[in-house]
């Protein structure tokens, strides 16, 4: 793993916390940082060590799987049970777009994504080809899941379709840049010729599906978009389906010649992993582990 230096903002994105929280962690001595002029820089390996997921002598023996879905935690756990040499897998909570970017920058990363391309009406492959130019890649299907509208129980604003986000009486809770949901929202606006400035709450950001649903439940907005599973975790939220999305995994073909990455594929194609994913409400596991590219 290389000695990449991160800004406090980048660390905040990795840890899914506010930037000020990172500064507090540095001040308390919980997180190592170097001051360069007036700016702090944090070594990526120190972030990993703070999370307790690597040891100093294991730095070159880790596989970073980017994504926010909880099924990736099960994947990492099943892989780590195999005790493949000194390798360990762990999840970085980066969204789809940012995960592909990190994979392009770093050799030890695997990306997962659910990025809808409005022009072709397909998921992931157009983004994989654009964001990792010149790379020889394999794409494996994980699951399909419904994404849709989060509204308060009883749907007091009678929000039933994407176009309702443009109404004057509707306030959106948006998602962060780089997330699959944010890409979907922006692609829908582009296709419909809708200026994002016409959407109330467009800059009202939530960093996860769960936070978005909770903000709608608390009245910080009238509607958000997220996956069906999360809507069932927040009391007082109703889910209105919009589109079934494909959630896939991207691995370099050169890595598939190496045992640790072969074992990652072995896990996602296993009956145990299928049953784990199948137990998550709202997931369609048909073709789980199938190679798409």
Brief summary of the model shown:
The protein is α/β, with parallel strands linked by helices and 293 residues long.
In the predicted model, the low-confidence regions spanning at least 5 consecutive residues are none
CATH architecture of the domain at 146-244: 3-Layer(aba) Sandwich
The CATH topology annotation of the domain at 146-244 reads as: D-Maltodextrin-Binding Protein, domain 2
**Mean of pLDDT:** 92
Which H/E pattern describes the elements? EHHEEHEHEHEEEHEEHEHEHEHHE
Q: Provide the gyration radius in Å.
A: 20 Å
CATH first level of the domain at 146-244:
Alpha Beta
Provide the structure class: alpha/beta
Description of the molecule:
The chain is α/β, with parallel strands linked by helices and 293 residues long. Among the domains are: 53 residues, Arc Repressor Mutant, subunit A (Orthogonal Bundle), CATH 1.10.10; 99 residues, Periplasmic binding protein-like II (D-Maltodextrin-Binding Protein, domain 2, 3-Layer(aba) Sandwich), CATH 3.40.190.10. Helices cover 33% and strands 25% of the residues. Strands 4, 5, 6, 9, 10, 11, 12, 13 and 14 form a nine-stranded mixed beta sheet that branches. The chain has a three-stranded antiparallel beta sheet with strand order 1-3-2. α7 links the parallel β10 and β11. α4 crosses α10. It is globular. The model has no long low-confidence stretch (mean pLDDT 92). It comes from Brotonthovivens ammoniilytica. Pfam families: HTH_17, PBP_like.
List the topology elements.
Layout: E1 5-6, H1 8-15, H2 19-28, E2 34-36, E3 39-43, H3 44-50, E4 62-66, H4 71-81, E5 88-92, H5 96-105, E6 109-113, E7 116-117, E8 122-123, H6 125-131, E9 137-152, E10 172-175, H7 180-192, E11 205-206, H8 209-218, E12 223-227, H9 228-231, E13 237-252, H10 259-268, H11 271-278, E14 283-284
Parallel strand pairs: 4-5, 4-6, 10-11, 10-12
Antiparallel strand pairs: 1-3, 2-3, 6-13, 7-8, 9-12, 9-13, 9-14
């Amino acid at each position: 793993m290389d000695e990449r230096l991160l800004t406090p903002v980048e660390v905040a994105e990795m840890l899914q916390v506010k930037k000020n929280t990172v500064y507090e962690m540095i001040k308390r001595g919980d997180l190592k940082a170097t001051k360069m002029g007036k700016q702090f820089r944090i070594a990526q390996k120190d972030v990993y060590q703070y999370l307790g997921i690597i040891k100093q002598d294991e730095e070159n023996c880790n596989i970073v799987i980017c994504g926010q879905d909880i099924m990736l935690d099960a994947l990492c756990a099943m892989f780590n049970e195999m005790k493949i040499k000194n390798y360990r897998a762990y999840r970085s909570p980066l969204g789809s777009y940012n995960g592909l970017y990190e994979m392009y920058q770093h050799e030890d990363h695997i990306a997962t994504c659910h990025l809808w391309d409005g022009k072709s009406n397909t998921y992931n492959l157009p983004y994989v080809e654009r964001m990792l130019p010149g790379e020889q890649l394999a794409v494996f299907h994980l699951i399909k899941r419904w994404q849709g509208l989060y509204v308060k129980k009883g749907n007091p604003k009678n929000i039933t379709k994407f176009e309702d986000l443009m109404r004057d009486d509707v306030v959106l809770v948006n998602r962060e840049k780089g997330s699959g949901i944010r890409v979907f929202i922006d692609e829908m606006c582009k296709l419909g010729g809708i200026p994002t400035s016409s959407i109330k709450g467009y800059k009202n950001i939530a960093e996860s599906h769960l936070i978005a649903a909770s903000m709608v439940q608390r009245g910080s907005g009238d509607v958000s978009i997220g996956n069906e599973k999360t809507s069932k975790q927040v009391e007082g939220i109703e889910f209105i389906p919009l589109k079934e999305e494909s959630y896939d995994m991207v691995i370099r073909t050169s890595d598939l010649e190496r045992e640790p990455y072969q074992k990652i594929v072995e896990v996602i194609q296993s009956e145990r992993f299928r049953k784990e994913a199948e137990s998550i409400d709202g997931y369609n596991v048909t073709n789980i582990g199938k190679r798409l590219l």
